[in-house]
Write a structure and sequence with these properties.
The chain is an alpha/beta fold and 224 residues long. It has one domain. It is 42% helix and 19% strand. It has 6 helices and 8 strands. The chain starts with 10 loop residues before the first helix and ends in a 6-residue tail after the last strand.
Length: 224
């Protein structure tokens, strides 16, 4: 609000102010939608990776970090996150439909991570998700952290580009795509040792030495 000391004298006055704010929010969403249309056009004209997939987890997490830093009482970040998630989901779908493949145990996490407008398909096994991802450029395979066969990830040609959820205390799943990871400003490189163990190496595109690089991921937000 322009005036932090504003205080309504009646419920009607407060509700009138809410209606005005809602109108302003809708106007800003229309403005954002127009800009996103231009983004989609520019990506298609460039013919780069963004022409087939609008999923940019590094940019999304970087935006979330900025939102978290600017959110304060009485507004809860969980509310901001939920609203922002659906805004991004809708505008992403307007550029290129976002196809997600996952298994039943991570279906709810997929909706929380990618929003209601993502095209979600449930497959029997993580390996089936990897095969579907490899056949269709732009598809994201969301693989449960406890059941991921990392050798199969390497064989699929996919790369880890994000950890899910984007905000939380633990990693429940991995986002794997044919596209390469991008830096978010606070990242980890993920590598696989010859013994089959994971190494989380601070930094983007960090040196994995003799280990197999699996990709990288933006460090999830700590909001608790």
């Amino acid at each position: 609000m322009d005036d932090p000391d504003w205080s309504p004298r009646s419920l009607d006055e407060a509700r009138t102010r809410i209606d005005a704010i809602d109108d302003a929010l809708l106007g800003l969403l229309h403005d954002r939608a127009q800009v996103v249309e231009h983004v989609g056009r520019l990506k298609r004209e460039s013919g780069g990776a963004g022409a087939t997939s609008a999923f940019r987890p590094a940019r999304e997490v970087a935006m979330l970090r900025s939102l978290l830093a600017r959110t304060h009482d009485p507004l809860a970040f969980e509310t901001v996150f939920a609203v922002w998630r659906e805004i991004v989901s809708g505008f992403t779908a307007a550029q290129v439909p976002l196809s997600i493949v996952t298994v039943a145990e991570t279906a709810a996490l997929a909706r929380d991570t990618f929003g209601a407008q993502a095209v979600l398909s449930l497959l029997p096994r993580p390996l089936d998700c990897l095969n579907a991802m490899a056949r269709q450029p732009g598809t994201v395979a969301l693989l449960p952290a406890q059941d991921t066969d990392w050798r199969a990830v390497v064989d699929s040609g996919g790369h880890v580009v994000a950890a899910a959820p984007f905000a939380g205390t633990g990693i429940e799943a991995w986002c794997v795509t044919l596209g390469a990871p991008e830096p978010s400003g606070e990242d980890m490189t993920l590598a696989l040792t010859a013994e089959g163990a994971l190494r989380h190496i601070p930094g983007f595109a960090a040196d994995t030495a003799a280990d197999t690089c699996l990709g990288g991921y933006p460090i999830p937000l700590k909001t608790g």
